[in-house]
Amino acid sequence: MKDMSVQAVAAASQQDSSVQKPPEDVAPPQEDAEVIPTLADYAEEESKSLAEMIKDAQEKAEANRNNLKVKNNTRYGDAPLEAYARLARAKSVSEVNAAAGYARRRMAQLKGALHVDSDNAAKIKAAISQLQKAVNRGAKKKRDLTREQQEAKRKAQSEEEEQRKQLELRRRQAQRTIREAGYLREAHISDQLATQITVTQMELRQQAQSMAAPPTASYLDAAAQQYVAAAAAAAAPAPTEAICVQG
Length: 247
Prior knowledge:
By secondary structure, the protein is an all-alpha fold. The protein has helices spanning 2-20, 30-35, 39-68, 78-89, 93-114, 121-210, 217-235.
């Protein structure tokens, strides 16, 4: 295109010079040839400026193509690997959301690169597919984390309930032990009182037999009851304090 335009301008300048060329026998004034430029000079300058414009336009177009063109050695497979790495490191729902957001952003970038780098269309499509899977698997991991948190909460509540039940069980066992010890003490005291009553009655009978006038049965019973009351008051245990059982 550059050569054609230059040839056209040169042909036009030659025609103009042939038409306006003065006769050979008539010499133009020397002063006018030195001061006034000829049409050939204008044509040459115009051809130079046109060639420079064409060259500048070509250079700008090439620069734009270089800016828009994606390099062929771009590693499109790194984006899915990074997305899966972030998803694996995520330990909470917010971290999973951040990993899914990274995958979505990379998907948008690769979709834009798909229209520019047609040579690597297969790699770009494979990376986009993997990133979409990463987003879906991130949603599944969020559900799993939520379920695990709920299970941990229920487990903590059940452990607290189990501790409360264990404390209640130990309290009841302590109370039962105290009651059983009281039963033994009560049986022992009752046996001692019965023995003392028997001894007292025998002593009273012996005293009555030694006396001239034997005492009546009511007298013997009254004396035995007074003795038993005094013995029971002396043998009664002191009141115990309330027992507190802690786990």
